[in-house]
Amino acid sequence: MPRILLFHLRNHLLRHVEEAGAGRANDHGDGLLSCIPGDSTAGERLKRLTGNLLECYRDSMQALHERYGNVRRRTRQIFDLITPEAFDMRPIPLRHPLRFYEGHLASFNFGMLLQSGFAKNDPQPELTKLFARGIDPLGTSAADKLTIRQWPERPRVADYIAGVDNEMTRAFEWEIDPIYLHTAVEHEEMHQETLMYLIHRVPYELKRKPANVRSEHGKNLSSASWIQIESGIADLGADPNQVPFGWDNEFPQMRAEVAAFEIASRKTSNGDFLKFVQGGGYEDERLWTEAGWKFIRASKIKAPPFWRHRDGEWFYEGLFESMALPLEWPVYVSHIEALAFTRWCGCRLPSESEWHRAFEGAEAPKPERDNFDFVAWNPTQVSGRNGEFLQLAGNGWEWTSTPFAGFPGFKPFAHYPGYSADFFDGLHFVLKGASPVTPAALVRRSFRNWFQDHYRYAYTAFRCARDF
């Protein structure tokens, strides 16, 4: 049973226990207990049921608490990848410096505790406010206007973080609505990936390479095959009664009619995209949207974000080292670049509904096979078995043609109303799947990611589709 429903059902039954104890057990309360055998009174049976429910609730909270502990440990490991000198860097001009995220995670968590009513007072409101929210401007000039010139010293921030961690530990031991704790945990998991693509752009000499990083490349690249998907119904989103937690944009579940189409068996690779580059794709205005063409010309973009051209050869600026361009790894590009490529090769991007329709015929994702949850840190090859899907969820988020918006009947979270709705602006597009550094808990079919169409900093890939 979902934890949130468990919490509210528990409280509902506790009210009936109080009524039964006062001699006011009602018909509805007796009806809830009609399935419990025994000759005891309704009040006694209700107490027994409530005790069992409370035990289930505490077990579920303990599991969530353990997950939170694992999340915090991984976050600390991620921050340990960089030297102290890197914390003041702003690797991506559209984002705050790295030191912001250290305090932001604690600020967000404490904000959840305040909203839940668990925390009554904020001992350091100036830090909670300073680190409350990141930025997502349209360009660097807008980002510069949001720049904070002076940040608090890290020892002070460390004390703030430790205080919030203690409060979170206490909160898991109390009986508060789990939605606040779930929101805090998944928010931090998402920011672990944000940290990784920020750290990607930190100079190599300021980073520490983990022992389990894999950089396998040089294998033969097989051609993608087209897989036919018959027309039918695609199920998007999730049923809130069937999942422990989901973000507001995952609800309510909806069904969509999908016409027959074909989709590539694998993601577009660096090798595929190299042909587009060598064929003058970045110089052909006909392949680009008007806004996309203006952006790449103004930004002087001539290749994907992690590519570098030196001495007549293409190289890949990886997370921890530079290497010869791995042709069989997925290419990471913006939406406007993916769209230009599909026009060049006579295909298109799949819609979100088509992605879901295709996913129904795919195997359940696994970290080792599909490459997510930090098993390799780097991308792995996209080529796979002919006629079968590979890495629909893993090895890089996949762009869709669908603008980010709520499903019919969408309701924003009451405790986090701006999480999704602030980005229903027609400028952000839905991505599905996962990247090499997406935590496993976020790899679910209903999860929706989104970025602006010109955003080139995340691990965003794509695969081609075409009408059938």
Strand-and-helix sequence, N→C?
HHHHHHHHEEEEHHEEEHHHEHEEEE
Figure out the total of helices. Answer: 14
N-C termini distance: 41 Å
Determine the mean pLDDT: 88
Low-confidence stretches: 22-38
- Cα-based radius of gyration, to the nearest Å: 25 Å
Quick one: overall form? globular
Main pleated sheet? 4 strands, mixed
Helix content: 25-40%
Order of neighbouring strands in the sheet with most strands: 10-9-8-11
- What structural class do helix, strand and pairing data support? alpha+beta
Total strands: 12
- The percentage of residues in β strands lies in 5-15%
Report on this model:
With 468 residues, the chain is an alpha+beta fold. Helices cover 39% and strands 11% of the residues. The protein contains 14 helices and twelve strands. It has helices at residues 3-21, 27-33, 42-79, 98-116, 125-130, 140-145, 154-173, 178-199, 270-278, 290-299, 335-344, 352-359, 367-370, 418-421, and strands spanning 226-229, 232-236, 254-258, 261-264, 307-310, 313-317, 322-324, 397-403, 428-432, 449-452, 460-461, 465-467. Strands 10-9-8-11 form a four-stranded mixed sheet, with no helix packed on it. A hairpin with a 2-residue loop joins strand 5 and strand 6. Helix 4 packs parallel to helix 7 (154-173). The model is unreliable at 22-38 (pLDDT under 50).
